[in-house]
Design a protein that fits this description.
The protein is an alpha+beta fold. The protein has seven helices and twelve strands. It starts with a helix and ends in a 5-residue tail after the last strand.
Length: 247
């Protein structure tokens, strides 16, 4: 939906579900190349407004990690706890317990965090992590300390974000190609079809394996396609109801 429609929809959804059940507006990158015919700006995004029947009792499902995200974890020191990644333990936020010296395994004394920064943990916490071998000092044991975070310690997936790039959720050009490949129309029958990838991502986050999915404006039937695709992937038994109204 565009900006004006988004405002109208927000008012209607507030009336139906209650303003307190509004969760987020998701920005979808529907176009990946600029429209040179645009008068002012090339409009590259659309909105998805997310409401819950009961916001306090609902949470989105985690997204699976991509191959690129998994490749961030490795195990260069053969830690028995498995693959890990490391993170900076200094930040610009002032912290009254965040200025102290540390000594690396090589014997190098580091007088404190870089200028203008603070350690993000207290000295006692730092020592405890170091004893647990959760501080990475580099292969030679002389680098600035970094916090080891193991893949087994983090959530099983990624918390969904409010910006969906076309590489993750498809785009309008992709959607039109999907329709044409299936139906071989000479002319475009749908002006704004949605890509399967977009609906698949949405259902992956919001639906359970035995849910019934309702699409009030079915259009090209992408929702049905996405439901069947997701069922095939996770063995679910989702059903769908599609409603199409003539103009």
């Amino acid at each position: 939906i565009d900006d004006n429609e988004q405002h109208v929809l927000r008012v209607l959804m507030d009336e139906i579900f209650g303003q307190h059940n509004f969760v987020a507006n998701i920005i979808w990158q529907k176009n990946f190349s600029p429209r040179n015919t645009a008068k002012w700006f090339s409009e590259d995004h659309d909105y998805l407004s997310c409401y819950a029947k009961n916001k306090d009792a609902w949470a989105p499902k985690l997204l699976g990690r991509t191959e690129t995200q998994l490749n961030m974890y490795s195990n260069p020191d053969n830690d028995p706890r498995g693959a890990w990644t490391s993170g900076d333990i200094s930040a610009r936020n002032p912290y009254d317990k965040g200025r102290y010296a540390v000594t690396s395994p090589s014997g190098r004394v580091i007088k404190g965090p870089p200028a203008g920064r603070y350690w993000t943990i207290s000295e006692d916490k730092f020592k405890a992590l170091d004893l647990e071998k959760r501080i990475w000092w580099g292969e030679d044991g002389a680098n600035a300390p970094r916090h080891k975070r193991f893949l087994t310690d983090v959530k099983e997936g990624i918390v969904p974000r409010t910006i969906w790039l076309h590489s993750e959720a498809g785009n309008t050009q992709e959607a039109k190609k999907e329709i044409n490949d299936l139906l071989q129309f000479e002319e475009e029958p749908f002006q704004t079809p949605k890509p399967v990838k977009l609906l698949h991502r949405l259902l992956s986050i919001t639906s359970n394996p035995d849910d019934i999915v309702l699409d009030r404006y079915a259009g090209s039937g992408t929702t049905a396609h996405a439901v069947l695709k997701l069922n095939k992937e996770d063995g679910g038994n989702r059903r769908f109801i599609l409603v199409e109204m003539e103009d």
